[in-house]
Automatic annotation (TrEMBL):
Residues 218-302, 315-397 form the Cyclin-like domain. GO terms for biological process: cell division; mitotic cell cycle phase transition; response to gamma radiation. Belongs to the cyclin family. Cyclin AB subfamily. Keywords: Cell cycle, Cell division, Cyclin. This is Cyclin-B2-2-like. Residues 311-428 form the Cyclin C-terminal domain. Pfam families: Cyclin_C, Cyclin_N. It comes from Ananas comosus. GO terms for molecular function: cyclin-dependent protein serine/threonine kinase regulator activity.
Length: 437
């Protein structure tokens, strides 16, 4: 069957679908009418998207982009992705060399001007830029690509200086409060000075001295171990004692009463099961009565203005050990070292966060046998190795002499199986030398 003649342009019969002649209907039969729009151009093909306007708002393919530009069609909006920007940059020279039809562009511009009123101001301005010239605004596009490349470089730089994430594996643990942990420790750092005392407050005491304080703390460490209390209770107990003694003169015979009462207050704040007053009286060999304990409790809380919650070295120890990716051995040695510092009055000159960081650093050096302070530890503790060396050297001295003298409560505690015989580990003596290892 010959289909060429039936389908030829101008060969259409002037008949309706029922075979009735259609008078007065004029068909384009002139071969010179070449401006007739093809079906594919008016988007009436099956599956083609239909828009209420003549200009598509979606981005076109690369081939369609070149075709439409040659025909003078205004390009729709396509997201300026990095891949798309790179494609336009590679084809910029080709687009520049291809001719355009000025008459057809002017016709299309009139239609586009009416449609652009429906767009917002930014899109309208974008359309006008593309209509005004015979080629794409390559300088603007190149500037955009250059800006995006700079942003990528800045992102890489920020990633290099970012704090290592140590909380990702706790994201599903509600007790780890991953969403708030950084805010919590930022607050601790701002508030830790409120829990510090003057390193020479004993000069204002007339009946007690630094050695008596050391004896009291050493004894309380044994009481804390006997009662199997939480670690934070011990640190808060010592903090309450120092803050109270810094504001209130105490006679020698009442110093032990201050100690047991401070532990009672710390237990009420930290423990689930609080030791009863009678237990504390019994542990102090019945040197005080229940009434005296309660009166001292009232005096302490009023002197401290009921401010019991302060950042102690313990809260920083938990965070810094996590940053160091510690195991049980490193954890026990770090606590052994920092508890030795609780007994020493001279260590009050260091901030709680510095004490905790120096304890972790000293323990790492003792276990590894060389100086070790990685980027994660430095970023999370906010202390460099040089800032820790002074405090760390003092800790090494305490570690070396822990089993000597009369105050050996911490050494005996960490010489047990429960604490992994940690006190028997060798100290990092090389930190005391002048040569860096």
């Amino acid at each position: 069957m010959d289909r060429s003649g039936a389908n030829a342009v101008g060969a259409m019969s002037s008949m309706s679908s029922q075979g009735v002649p259609m008078e007065g209907v004029k068909f384009s039969t002139e071969t010179g009418d070449t401006n007739r729009r093809a079906l594919r151009d008016i988007k009436n093909l099956m599956g083609a998207p239909i828009y209420p306007c003549a200009v598509s708002k979606r981005g076109l393919s690369d081939k369609a982009t070149v075709d439409c530009k040659n025909q003078g069609v205004i390009l729709g909006h396509r997201p300026m992705t990095r891949k798309y920007a790179a494609t336009l940059a590679n084809k910029a020279k080709i687009c520049h060399q291809e001719p355009t039809e000025n008459n057809e562009r002017q016709k299309r511009s009139a239609t586009s001007a009416q449609i652009s009123n429906a767009f917002n101001a930014s899109n309208a301005a974008y359309d006008e830029d593309h209509q005004s010239g015979d080629e794409f605004p390559l300088p603007m596009m190149e500037e955009m690509v250059s800006t995006e490349l700079k942003e990528i470089e800045m992102e890489d730089l920020e990633e290099d200086t970012a704090v290592p994430d140590i909380d990702s594996f706790d994201s599903k643990n509600p007790l780890a409060v991953v969403d708030y942990v950084e805010d919590i420790y930022n607050f601790y750092r701002k508030d830790e000075n409120s829990g510090c005392v003057s390193p020479n407050y004993m000069a204002n005491q007339f009946d007690i001295n630094e050695k008596m304080r050391a004896i009291l703390i050493d004894w309380l460490i044994e009481v804390h171990y006997k009662f199997e209390l939480m670690d934070e209770t011990l640190f808060l107990t010592v903090n309450i004692i120092d803050r109270f003694l810094a504001r209130q003169n105490v006679v020698r015979k009442k110093l032990q009463l201050v100690g047991v009462t401070a532990m009672l207050l710390a237990c009420k704040y930290e423990e689930v099961t609080v030791p009863v007053v009678e237990d504390l009286i019994l542990i102090s060999d019945r040197a005080y009565t229940r009434k005296e304990v309660l009166e001292m409790e009232r005096l302490i809380v009023n002197t401290l203005q009921f401010k019991m919650s302060v950042p102690t070295p313990y809260v920083f120890m938990r965070r810094f050990l996590k940053a160091a990716q510690s195991d049980k051995k490193l954890e026990l040695l770090s606590y052994f070292i920092v508890e030795l510092c609780l007994v020493e009055y001279d260590m009050l000159k260091f901030r709680p966060s510095l004490l905790a960081a120096a304890a972790v650093y000293t323990a790492q050096c003792a276990i590894k046998g060389y100086k070790h302070w990685d980027r994660s530890c430095e970023m999370h503790t906010r202390y460099s190795e040089d800032q820790l060396l002074e405090c760390s050297k003092i800790m090494v001295e305490f570690h070396k002499k822990a089993g000597q003298g009369r105050l050996t409560g911490v050494h005996r505690k960490y010489s047990t199986f429960k604490f992994g015989y940690t006190a028997k580990l060798d100290p990092a003596l090389f930190l005391l030398g002048t040569n860096n290892i």
